[in-house]
Specification:
Length: 240
């Protein structure tokens, strides 16, 4: 596997595991990551993952240039999906990958009170599925659940006390449990993520959102994820 890091910035970027004389990725240039012998070594490098998350680096694998989402998938990071929570109409075929949407993106039409999920983000032919009328949850409830789910990556914000505590187990590149507690005393849970790994890819994510008592589960959100090679191709979400 030949992996090339492409610098998207106007400044040099250092990289601790880079096999280069000056140990950097040159400004607006690229460097081959010859220190990496396997995907598992890449997964352990949080510095490189941080560069990709900050839009500073994209990867090229065996001659194929990857998007940010694909680069994050290779590095084991959770892609940041683009959403629209305040639309006044339904999405069209042009709400696609060219403007930042991807499979799993959400679109809330506040005029019709309808939630849409992107099922295909192909340029010029995007597909969005609407939640069935009279079933599931409301748009307002979905915004709350989505906010709680993203606490796994971003941490609790408005409406929660300071001092919230995140516990990840086991340590290492393949955690199977992430829990946000109200404090380090770990008496009340806010949200919990249980991850199922198949090799180096995540094939299922289950979120449990807790009531204010910290023990009663308000909702369970299960994502089943499929891949084409190393890259996520689609996911199915069930809310119960």
């Amino acid at each position: 596997m030949i992996i090339v890091a492409q610098n998207q910035t106007a400044g040099d970027l250092s990289l601790k595991q880079l096999s280069a004389i000056d140990a950097k990725i040159p400004a607006s240039g690229e460097a081959t990551l010859t220190d990496y012998n396997s995907l598992f070594e890449i997964l352990e490098d949080s510095q490189l993952l941080g560069y990709v998350q900050a839009d500073s680096v994209l990867l090229e694998v065996d001659g194929t240039s990857l998007t940010k989402q694909q680069s994050l998938t290779v590095l084991g990071g959770e892609p940041t999906l683009k959403h629209n929570y305040s639309a006044s109409s339904s999405p069209t075929v042009n709400e696609d990958d060219s403007v930042g949407y991807s499979v799993g993106s959400l679109w809330i039409d506040t005029t019709a009170d309808t939630v849409f999920v992107c099922t295909d983000s192909s340029t010029g032919s995007a597909s969005w599925a609407a939640a069935a009328a009279g079933s599931g949850i409301t748009a307002a409830q979905h915004r709350v659940l989505r906010q709680l789910i993203h606490f796994i990556d971003d941490g609790p914000a408005e409406g929660f006390p300071s001092g919230c505590y995140k516990e990840t187990t086991p340590t290492g590149p393949f955690p199977t449990s992430e829990i946000w507690w109200e404090s380090s005393s770990k008496l009340k849970k806010i949200v919990e993520l249980t991850t199922t790994w198949t090799g180096a890819t995540i094939t299922q994510e289950v979120w449990e959102v807790y009531d204010t008592d910290g023990s009663s589960v308000l909702a369970t959100i299960t994502d089943t994820i499929n891949y084409t090679g190393l890259f996520e191709s689609d996911r199915t979400r069930v809310i119960a």
